[in-house]
Structure formats: C-alpha cells, structure tokens
Amino acid sequence: MSKQINWEQIFVKLILIAGVALSVIQFIYNRSLWDDEANLALNIIHRSAFELLKPMDSIQVAPILFLQMEKLFSLLIPESERGLRLFLLICFLIALFSFSALLKKLFNNPVVVIFGLSLFVFNTFMIRYSNEVKQYMCDVMLTAVIGYLLLSLHDDEKRKFIWLAVAGAVGVFVSNITPIIMATAGLYLLHSHFYIRKLNFPYFIKVSLVWALVFGFYYFLFIYDHPNRDIQVRAFDKRGGFFNPNLFTPEFFVSVKLIFNNFFVDLLPFGKAGTIILSILYGFGLFVLIVKKRIGLLILTVTPMFLHLVLSSLKMYPVFARLMLYQTPLLIIVVAFGVEQLFEYVSRVIKSKLIFKAGLVLSLFVVIQFFVNGYPFVNQEIRKSIDFIQENISEGEPVYIDWRARRQFQYYVDIKYVKFKAPIITGIRYNEFSEKNINDLKSLSGKHWVLFAGGDYGMQKKLIRKLGKSGVKIEKSFLTSKSHTYLIDI
C-alpha cells in the first residue's frame, strides 16, 4: 500500500526553504548602506572591540554583544557590507526556525501553521532587517527563542530552564528589548505555577536570579547615565516617537494611529487589503483567546506590547516600527488564532480539503503581495550613484556631497570602494531645503558633481530644477533608488 503524501508538511518545509532563500538572496544582492546603517558601520570598522564598549559617535547606541559580533564578522569579511550583515542573517535564520517550531507547538492545524509562517517569511519588513546593520533582528530572534522555550518546558523541564537562563542572559547583551521579554516570560511562568501547576518553582527562582543579576550588571556598566541618552530622547521626542497615554490630548490619538500603522502597515506589510483583513483577524484572535481563557498565551502575546507602551510613555523606548519589529511573531500568533477559530467554524459546513485550499489562497495572497512590494529590498542606493560618477568623472572635477549623504559616502571612501581622486566638498547642514542650499551650490564655480542620498527626494529634485532655471547647466544626471547624482556647470 503506497504511503499518502503529507502535503501540509511539504508546504511548511517549502516555506522554510523560501525563508532561507529569500534572506540569502537579499544578502547576496548586497544593497547599499543607508545613512543610519552607515553611522553605526563607521563606528564598527574604525573602533577596536574594546573601544566599542564605550559610547559611540553619531549618537549611536547598540547592545554590546551585538557590536562585538559585528566587529568580528567585519574582520572576517573586511571592507564589505556583507561582513556587517552576516550576523543579522544568522539571527534571522535562528528566528525563522524557532518561530516555525513555536507555531507547531501552538497549532495542530497545519493550514494555520502554513499561513502564520507565510506572514513571517514573505514579509518585506522582516527580510529587510534580516540584512540591516542594526540590532533589531536580534530582538526578533530573542522573542522567538524565548517563546519556544517557554512552550517547551514540560518536555524536559530542567534542561529547558537551563536554556531559558542562558538565552535570557545572552539576550541582555544582544538585544535592547530583553527586559520586556524577561518580564513577559516571568509573568507567563508565574501563571503556569499558580494556575496550571506545571512549574518547578525553585527552577523559576534560579532563572529569575540569573536574569536579574546579569541585567543589573549590564545596566550599571553600559546603560546607566549614558551620555547619548538625552540627545536620543530629544531626537525621538521631536519626531513624535514616544507614546502619549493621556486620553484627553490629540497626541494620544496620534500615538494610537502610529502604533496601528506600525503593526498592520509596516510589520505586516501586505497592502491595504492586508491591513484590513489582518487587523480584523488580530481583533478576532484576541477575542478568541479571551473567551477561551487562554491567559498564558494572552500574557505571552500582549504583555510585550503593554510594557513597550509603558516604557515609551516614560520616554525610555520609542514606538517606531523598527523598534517594535520583535512584536511581529506575537502579532502573527494572535492573527493565527483568529484564522484557526474561523476555520473551526467553517469546518462544520465545509470539507477539510476546501479549508486547506482556502488556507493556501490566503498564503498565496501573502506571497503575491511580498513581490508586489518589491524584492530584493532596496533603500538608498548610493553605491550606484558612486559608480556613475566613477565612470564619468574627469580629472579635476570636484564632488559636492549633500549633507545627508556624507556618512554613507565616508563609509565607501573608508572601505576603498570610492576610487576617484577628486576634491570633496560637504554641503551645509539643514532640516529642510531653503535658499541657503541653492546659494551653497551657486557659490561653487565651474563643473561639479553633486551627490544626493536619503533625505527628501522630491525637494532635492526641486533644488536641481531651481538651479537649472537660474542658469546652471545640468550636463549629466543619474537617478536610482533614493539616491541621485548630477554633473552641473556653474
């Protein structure tokens, strides 16, 4: 008798393979560093491992172990963005397989696992940060690993508690959101002890002590009285980056809108239809968890969001999407519970094969939207603009670097990607384009290359048009993703 093919398991494996392939292809594609990445990258490549323990330049702040790993890989693959991105790729792959295992622990219905895993893998924001020189993928990894360990404690309690202690202790040094995840894990374990009676309390006390001691050590050594803190708080506050809990102010509703967009536009980036469908499924999933009194899972999925908002209201941690990237697996879990319950209702009147096909249609929608969003992900492709200058520059032609592009350009100079020898002029600092920018360029004489990357793309083009109307000749131009360059004759 021939063995029946398990299509559900095959699809799960195919999605995992796709997750590996998409992230590795993005890594090989090797997009240019954008300005915030360049700020951190310059610190990493120019400082020793010991110097990275000290406050960094350009108001950069990152976990110490993350910086040490970045330094190590930058030495293994020198003078390359790939050396700076390899550790993040590894973190993504650990997060991917941990989250897959977590979904299998939570859901018996393989169709729900397929859909949940699709939301994680075919996710533009997630794939972007699998190759971004920032620490946010470490946050996702920690969330997925701790979540899996918490749900696996009954398998081998002593061993899993040891792993839990190690994961939390290491997490302190690699992720800024570790205190949120630790507090969530502690509440989940306490709930398990007092309400489910499935917890060895002495193990819990030992793990809690390890976490508290390690975090206390890290806090007083690397966080307390940090010289960059006040500057960062002012910068985030100016951009509306902190949650306002006052219900009676307009800023509260601005904060709520920002968080909604973070969750259902940025972290789950599946178009307008996806925003509507997934926000409804999330609300339904929360309703299901409350009605079924799944208190442990509510603690696991909702507590991190609540704690993040509390910390944000105290101006300790902003609510921008990249800083909430670790919420993505938790959002997906709640959405998946909504889908599972929906399929359970439908299964009473529809055959299981049709439900399986419906699940595949939902997953197919996710896949299509991923490629509609654009893949591989690109941002500020300054390297292509540099290539254009290198191919066309003549001897003696100076290069004017827009102020917002200066750190990226400096990075590519320092890794010896920039080959031309030409006078370099850095533009004036600005928040918005004004006559000062035009006059700054008009003060030049003769032929100059002008290089833009980042900033307000539309305003930069408007600046060039104004120059053209004022008699400045635009001899050559090159435009790419959020970067462009011109040869002007003044």
Describe this structure as you would to a colleague.
- The protein has two domains: 7-373, no CATH class; 382-489, Translation Initiation Factor IF3, CATH 3.30.110.
- The N and C termini lie far apart (83 Å).
- It is mostly helical.
- It has a five-stranded mixed sheet with strand order 2-1-3-5-4, sandwiched between helices.
- The chain is globular and about 80 Å long.
- α3 (64-76) packs across α4, α7 runs parallel beside α9 (178-196) and α9 packs antiparallel against α14 (295-313).
- The protein is 65% helix and 6% strand.
- It contains 20 helices and five strands.
- The mean pLDDT is 93.
- It has helices spanning 7-29, 35-46, 64-76, 81-106, 110-121, 124-129, 136-151, 157-174, 178-196, 201-223, 229-238, 250-267, 271-291, 295-313, 328-346, 352-373, 382-392, 406-414, 435-442, 457-469; strands at residues 399-401, 424-426, 447-453, 473-480, 483-489.
